[in-house]
Amino acid sequence: MSASYSGNNAAKAGKIVNILKARFGEIPWWPGDTEEVMIGAILTQQTRWENVEQALQLLKERNLCTMAALNTADIPAIEAAVRCTGFYRIKTRRLKALAAFVVETCEGTAGMDTLPTATLRDGLLRVNGIGEETADSILCYGFGRPSFVIDAYTEHIARCAGITAPRSSLKHLFESVLEEEKTHVYHQAHAHIVEYAKRWCTKKRCNGCRIMALNG
DNA sequence: GACCAGGTCCTTG
DNA sequence: CAAGGACATGGT
């Protein structure tokens, strides 16, 4: 059986995707409109999602859950709402930077919608505080673009599966095995990986390599 | 009390 | 370029 998953990296990536899809089926993942996803993408950096939900709720209650509002809001008001997500000072600065980019540079999310994915991605990456994972999360879940999200879990699972490619090429690798332009497939594939890794791969004990032994 | 959470930036060697 | 530190609250 080992021969069945000793092939090249793309074959292994494809197997991960198919096995986890068979195991989890359809699972809900990252709800919210475009602007809420953008905000959540920054707040979830190095933080549990449950804490992000609390902050999003506070932001909504205080009418701060839009780019326009964040762009003009007082720093302390934003900090108070996002404190429960940790790193609240730097995250407030990042939210401000993103809001300025959206409102001033793009003239709102409607303007961003018209940009090609590559252009939009480059723009997001230029915002201080937005790296590859945050940018791809925004593109994939906020704008419905097929831009696969590579996070620490994905890299970990890839290693467990024997994929030898460096992290920098994992995005391209997974995109090569996913149906083109099918955003929903991208959404679910990432969700499945996170769901599996969160449950079975901790620092203390890891069963990641067992993925490849499951039926897919 | 120690350790970790769906990263990113900045500084050093 | 790789490695190390800073950022900070909340849950186990």
Describe it for me?
The protein is mainly alpha-helical and 216 residues long. The chain is 61% helix and 0% strand. The chain is built from 12 helices and no strands. It has helices at 9-24, 34-43, 49-61, 67-72, 75-82, 88-105, 109-113, 117-126, 132-142, 152-160, 170-177, 183-200. Helix 1 (9-24) packs across helix 11 and helix 2 runs antiparallel to helix 6 (88-105). Mean pLDDT is 94; it is low at 1-6. The protein binds a DNA duplex (13 and 12 nucleotides) through residues 30, 41-42, 44-52, 83-91, 94, 128-134, 137, 149, 151-154, 190, 194, 197-198, 202-203.
What features would you highlight for this structure?
mainly alpha; globular; 216 residues; 12 helices; 0% strand; DNA-binding; disordered N terminus
